[in-house]
Amino acid sequence: MINKRTIYILLAVVSLFAFSCKKDFNEVNTDPIGKSAVSASQLLAPALVDVLSANMVRNRNFNNELMQVTVDISDAEGKVFRYDVRRTWADYTWNAWYVELTNLRDIYTIANKPESLNASYKGISLITQAWVFQLLTDVYGDVPYTQANQGKEGVYEPVFDKQKDIYLDLFNKLEEANKLLSEGKAITASSDPVYQGDINKWRRFGNSLYLRLLLRISGKSEVSTQAIAKIKEIAETNKGNYPIMENNTHTAKILWNGTNSSTSVYSSPFMISVRAVDFRTPAITNFFIGNLANWADPRVNTTFGVNGVSRLGIAPGPAGLIGVPSGYDAGTSIIKQSYFYSDAQNAGVTLQTDPYTGIIMNCAEVDFILAEAAAKGWISGTGESYYLKGIADAINYWLPTRFTSVSDPALASYVVAADINWNNNLPLENSAINSSSKMQLIHLQKYYAMFLVDFQQWIEYRRTGHPFLPKGTGLANGGKMPSRLNYPLVTQSTNPTSYKNAVAVQGADDINTLVWWQKP
């Protein structure tokens, strides 16, 4: 049976020859899988799809459980929503990400050869490497980096680099990518499932990712001055040289085909990897749906959906559009309420096959990054305009043109009625006296903007402590949100020396050890 990777490579090869009728038939009919060399265009789509597929699977069954989007109702042990995180959770993403980093790195190598030189593929390679390495280091901490993916060169036991050093080099990658992409060198549009060959949009994504990473380490005293200065340069003083995402057409995503086929190209990973009965099994939490319902949010308003089903494809429970508590005690009788429709239920709207679930990074996240930077006084403004734009862009991603602009009266009416309007008199952070703050306002909305985006809700919660999540009495791990995933067990046996050195530097290999940017 032909697997998905074969299909992607075959399509890429066909696209290269589609307009070349003069080529010899035998050359056109050569098996691309049997070739001794591949082009950069052949590697890009399969690598991106495989990384994003792993991200979506773990977003659904790990991030969403920790961050109170859903609850896998059960009294069994090892339930993530109770912070009972087993060591086996670590293997899947580690393996998926490192395998594809080999392909993403090879894109740069191929595009750097004189016979196949292409600055844009080099830039895209650097951006996608930075994207995946950011995930690795934010999820695990210190990880193999400088010696990673060098098995062909005989490096079988790579050292673990410190997170600080990884971040600083990721900045170098993103700087180089911005310069390379500024050349505007064309690529094969059919090889690019994210932007269909639009180099300017890749450049915007790279610089937006740059902002994400800079903000993440901005609280570390040893690098904060440089990080904040760079945020200001990108967002304000030199923004002409650093284009960033400005609207939803710039959002980095792979648009799935919207079918329930598990074999077609660009079928959603939710369709391929998750059975329909499993997709609809988790219950939606009080926290996630309660806010949306209280706000009369368009994303859960059936008026803006299809056939009485909201845009997010949510099925009401026995008591209506309500959720269940997260972190409840084992043995508690919990009745499942609202949940996400699966494809098999023919509801008309389901995220299981929805084309728009393949989000790598969206424009709304950038808006909220800038809102935080402004609220902290790093860039001009109070943060209000960025905050409102973030709300509009987050909703418009699912319901295009729901709000026409930040000044749209409909947006103003929505935020006032929902009681989520900006209040510049609030303190930046919460205190014993003030139960609300600008950071809580920003990050509650950012939480919903990053719905379905890999581990970003969890990572940002670890950085900021926002949004405030209710703590159930049934939580394991002393009620503490896990700070990282442990290293995979296979790493201990295949790379024992580097593993021991990493643990000696970073701390015990468990879920409560803080990564570098979390440490005081």
Structure description:
This protein has 18 helices and eight strands. It is mainly α. Helix 4 packs antiparallel against helix 5. The chain is globular.
What kind of oligomer do you see? single chain
Radius of gyration: 23 Å
Order of helices and strands: HHHEHHEEHHHEHHEHEEEHHHHHHH
> Mind describing the biggest β-sheet?
2 strands, antiparallel
Total number of beta strands: 8
**Proportion in β-strands:** under 5%
What characteristic shape results from the CA principal axes? globular
Mean pLDDT: 93
Number of DSSP helical runs: 18
Secondary structure layout:
Elements: H1 4-17, H2 25-28, H3 40-66, E1 70-71, H4 91-111, H5 119-140, E2 143-144, E3 160-161, H6 163-181, H7 199-216, H8 224-237, E4 252-253, H9 269-273, H10 276-279, E5 283-284, H11 286-294, E6 314-315, E7 339-340, E8 359-361, H12 363-375, H13 384-398, H14 409-418, H15 438-449, H16 456-464, H17 489-494, H18 496-506
Antiparallel strand pairs: 1-5, 2-3, 4-8, 6-7
Helix pairs in contact: 1-3, 3-4, 3-5, 4-5, 5-6, 5-7, 6-7, 7-8, 7-12, 12-13, 12-15, 13-15
